[in-house]
């Protein structure tokens, strides 16, 4: 489990595109002092297991399903990624509980300055409109965020300057794929609703 509070960004230093899985190495010395084999680290919101590490880098594998459902397959050497280590039970949860199981991707549309603040607009993927609510939680590239505005086709996020500067948000380009994990509470409610409809059909 993760909280959606990005600890640092890392840099992709190596990618091995094996047909069965990709192997990626990420430079991120600031979060590796207590690293162990098998530890979970969220990379752009994707829960991945450490298979090797040094003082400065860690390595993960990504299987085809992960590459197909996320923006991991879009990454290139020298690209930056958001990183968060798995939650400890005695830690504060500054964001919201995130599983690290990306549901789908959306596209970044662009930034807009509104009342001297920065608002980012994203496409709303078909089939996921049931899981988003105005002022509700959403995780984008592993960041716990609040939906500022919602329409049938677009949702918007108001970013504070600290988030932009300390995460991959500052690198966002139009039409770039962004990982989405919707709030798990919405998933449960949707599932309960479907079961209820089936029972009364």
Q: How would you portray this structure in words?
A:
This protein has 201 residues and is mainly beta. The protein folds into two domains: 8-85, Elongation Factor Tu (Ef-tu), domain 3 (Beta Barrel), CATH 2.40.30; 104-194, Beta Barrel (Elongation Factor Tu (Ef-tu), domain 3). It is 14% helix and 41% strand. It has three helices and twelve strands, in the order E-E-E-E-E-H-E-E-E-E-E-E-H-E-H. The protein has helices spanning 64-69, 161-166, 184-199; strands at residues 8-17, 22-27, 40-43, 46-53, 57-62, 80-85, 104-114, 117-123, 137-140, 143-150, 154-159, 177-182. Strand 7 and strand 8 (117-123) form a beta hairpin. The relative contact order is 0.19. The model has no long low-confidence stretch (mean pLDDT 94).
Strand order of the largest sheet: 1-2-5-4-3-6
Shape: globular
Taking all residues together, what is the mean pLDDT?
94
Q: Sketch the topology as an H/E string, one letter per element.
A: EEEEEHEEEEEEHEH
Helix content: 10-25%
Low-pLDDT sequence parts: none
Secondary-structure content class? mainly beta
Percentage of β-strand residues:
35-45%
* CATH architecture descriptor text of the largest domain: Beta Barrel
Q: Helical element count? A: 3
Look up the CATH topology of the largest domain. Elongation Factor Tu (Ef-tu), domain 3
Radius of gyration: 17 Å
Report the strand count: 12
Cα(first) to Cα(last) distance is: 36 Å
Biggest sheet: strands, sense, closure?
6 strands, antiparallel, barrel
């Amino acid at each position: 489990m993760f909280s959606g509070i990005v600890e640092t960004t890392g840099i992709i230093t190596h990618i091995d595109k094996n047909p069965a899985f990709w192997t990626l190495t990420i430079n991120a010395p600031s979060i590796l002092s207590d690293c162990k084999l098998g530890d979970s680290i969220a990379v752009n919101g994707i829960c991945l297991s450490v298979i090797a590490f040094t003082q400065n880098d860690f390595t993960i594998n990504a299987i085809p399903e992960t590459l197909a459902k996320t923006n991991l397959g879009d990454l290139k050497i020298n690209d930056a990624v958001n990183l968060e280590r798995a939650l400890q039970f005695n830690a504060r949860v500054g964001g919201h509980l995130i599983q690290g199981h990306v549901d789908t991707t959306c596209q970044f549309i662009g930034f807009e300055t509104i009342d001297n603040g920065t608002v980012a607009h994203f496409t709303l993927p078909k089939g996921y409109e049931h899981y988003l609510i105005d002022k509700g939680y959403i995780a984008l590239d592993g960041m716990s965020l609040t939906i500022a505005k919602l329409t049938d086709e677009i949702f918007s996020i108001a970013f504070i300057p600290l988030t932009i500067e300390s995460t991959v948000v500052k690198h966002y380009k139009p039409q770039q794929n962004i990982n989405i994990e919707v709030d798990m509470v919405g998933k449960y409610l949707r599932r309960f609703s479907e079961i209820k409809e089936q029972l009364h059909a």
